[in-house]
Fold these 2 entries.
Entry 1:
Amino acid sequence: MSPVESGTVEETTLTPDVQWWQSAVIYQVYPRSFADGDGDGVGDLAGLTARLPYIASLGVDGIWMTPFQPSPQLDQGYDVSDYCGVDPLFGTMEQFDALLELAHSLGLRILLDVVPNHCSSEHPLFQQALAAGPGSQKRDMFHFVEGSDDDVPPNNWQSVFGGRAWSRANPESLTDTDWYLHLFSAGQPDWNWRNPAVGDYFDGVLRFWFDKGVDGLRIDVAHALFKAEGLPDSPSAGGVVDGLRSNPQVSDQEEVHEVYRRWRTLAEKYEPHRLLVGEVNLEPARAARYTRADEMQQAFAFAFVKLGWDPAAWAAAGNELEAARRLHGATPTWALENHDIVRSVTRFGGGELGAMRARAALVALLGLPGPAYLYQGQELGLPEVDVPLECRVDPMWARGGVCRDGARVPLPWIADAALNHGFSLAEPAIAFQASEPWLPQPADWGTHAIELQQEDPESSLALVTKALEMRRLLWKSEVFGPNDGGSWRVEAGNLLICERSADFFVAVAMGTEPVKLPAGTVLLSAAPLAEDGWLQPDNAAWVLRR
Ligand code: BGC
């Protein structure tokens, strides 16, 4: 029974000083794989615009779009060659403006990705730096360092994508013995944030998009912008692994906080204030420092991304985040999936079991205290795809062996495989055309199709839509509030509990036997209850103590 039917929850008006983003759920769009509007097999702005009503119908508050700016597409757009444009692969600036207008009219906010750690080696400023030669001011926008020997780079830093983090600026030249730093691929040179001109340049980038009415930014590798003065060797033997954490010289330098203070000031010059959300892949106590009152408003909590179906580990991670919240007032911003992470269905065991657990995890996620992000296809329960070797394009796969393509396969809109599951639309109307998608869709993709799930009240899509509706109601009725915390524990039978407030808790059955819930009214569950007040294994519930 829903609280509306039972009369358990009454709607009141949301307290005016609660900011929109405190209760928000944002849907991440990976434009290449969302919908293709021009039939070339690559998703684009026209496709996304045509499908905005679908996103609005989920009941989310906004969209985060991964990069669509001009780029050689070496790292699928995370190698930006023009921060203030639209890559023709995705469309035009006029199309972006139309998208923004339609999104706003549908009540959806738009967040864009900004990539301030590095650009593309095709970026004009990098090209000018290369041409200007050793010792020039232009090279000081990046990390160019003279090397004594062809084979000995300036220090021992490793690239996140594998191999060393340095390449020769001009391997053909006998006089240009500089190397340049790239924490990712050689096509992604790192900016030198110790040069004030870099900060000024990015102020312009932020203003450009904020002036257009973009509602906020997701900040790529936000903790890596500053490198230790003098670029010393990393003491860690293995170099950079685990999201840059193991190289203290490139991660979490104190100076980086000044950037976010400056950006927050800029974001608050706009009405409504613009939102900053950081990809800060650090332990919770360090990550929380990026969301102090004068820095970003949000930083992703990826706590459960690296964990299996283990209640003690979830409770420990949850309590660690809560401790960080108490210390810095940093409410966790939850995410279980994104374009870099193996899909949760697969992480949690794959097949039927993985699908059940992913549903339970989704219900848990949306009931936890704090904003949440969903990744396109997560609402459909899409599994990770084992992309055939010859079709893999991820540079990380090419350099290091880890492949992220399996979470990036184009969405199945319709069941019909002959039409490539409706991924490509024929303009101007919504008709389909069978264009070869940029990554192949697997044989069973049609079973997850949106058109089927929209008709099925038991589908993953129906569950997410219901959870989002209930979540809004709980915010409106002030059962959910901005100051809710999370007190986590594991009860008998491996029942994970997160007490959000005196009134509400989330329960996840992570054991092998049905478990009895503590007393309360079940508002939502991922699957039907075993019997009144009992959860089957791999089910989750929202419980109101009234
Ligand atoms: C993005 C990745 C990208 C990397 C380099 C990450 O955090 O999410 O997709 O490859 O930054 O820009």
Note: Residues 27-34+47-117+196-229+242-409 form a domain with the TIM Barrel fold (CATH 3.20.20.80).
Entry 2:
Amino acid sequence: MAECVFPADEARPRHDWARAEIAALFEMPLSDLIYLAQTVHRRHFKPNQVQLSTLLSIKTGGCPEDCGYCAQSAHFDSGVKSEKLMPLDAVLAQAARAKANGATRYCMAAAWRNPRDSDLEKVCAMVEGVRRLGLETCATLGMLTAEQSRRLKAAGLDFYNHNIDTSEEYYGKVVTTRTYQDRLDTLANVRNAGIKVCCGGIVGMGEAREDRIGMIHTLATLPAHPESVPINLLARTRGTPLGACERPEVFELVRTIAAARITMPLSMVRLSAGRESLTDEAQALCYLAGANSIFVGNKLLTTANPELNRDRKLFDSLKIEPMPVDE
Ligand code: SAM
Ligand code: DTB
Ligand code: SF4
């Protein structure tokens, strides 16, 4: 196993991580790993601030893709019904409520393989409206062409979420209706259009540690690191192929977060799906490992997220404060 060669005084992020270096991070004693992650985190961020985003499903269910983790795929019977794209005024009303609850970023998600141009225009109007409320905007709409990416940029979109989900080797076991390269192509289109990238993946899909290492390696060796790296713990949904996956040890989630923090020091690392199923102590370990962003609000897309009061209580106990928008 290669030794971890992370230089203690490295100020600039590296893009040349060897897979063996990332494997070495995963192998470290947990206490040493957290110490390293904290050291990196404190160099670039205020250590006790966490950024708050809110998620809205603007188009739910009936998706033609077959992502084995997802309740919204039309291929599986999860009980989630296919709905139409939400109207603009309803989206803006929800965004105003999220802002009142302390969110600074608003992420609009659609269960599409890719948006039709007519739908993209509707989403652009939502982006413009949410921006006028003073929120950062994020969208996740599936694959985008270069032209569609430029259109979203012109509408004022700040971030685009498009996850690689897992390692390239494991990807085909999770999704068959698109390839890893399709994901990377959309990420390049988004980046070239000047939109900030939100890209991460999922822990707990039956993957091996080697796949978690591979996922972090892909992210950390992109030409530019994603500005946001969501690390989701699989929200297991009955009826989906991965709905009965065994839970990995919570420490694997913590190690994945720490590896993301250390290898992508300037990125926001978001503890995304799965918080509802974590104890307060496990969440605290995730923050110690360098997670500095979460989704707030009691619903993600189709699954539950902690109630606001539970998050407020935990933040009070840990003395964590919400991050202002320009941090
Ligand atoms: N349809 C678009 C796409 O897949 O790119 C956007 C929405 S999709 C729900 C966004 C991401 O949410 C997925 O890429 C996946 O990483 C994550 N996700 C979906 N279902 C999940 C689940 N049950 N548990 C954890 N993460 C999940
Ligand atoms: C991401 O990485 N996590 C969010 C967001 N991007 C769109 C989605 C989580 C979805 C959790 C499952 C559900 O609620 O359906
Ligand atoms: Fe569709 Fe996205 Fe769910 Fe995959 S993750 S089935 S693309 S909504």
Note: Strands lie at 49-59, 105-110, 136-140, 159-161, 196-198, 201-203, 228-233, 268-271, 293-295, 321-322.
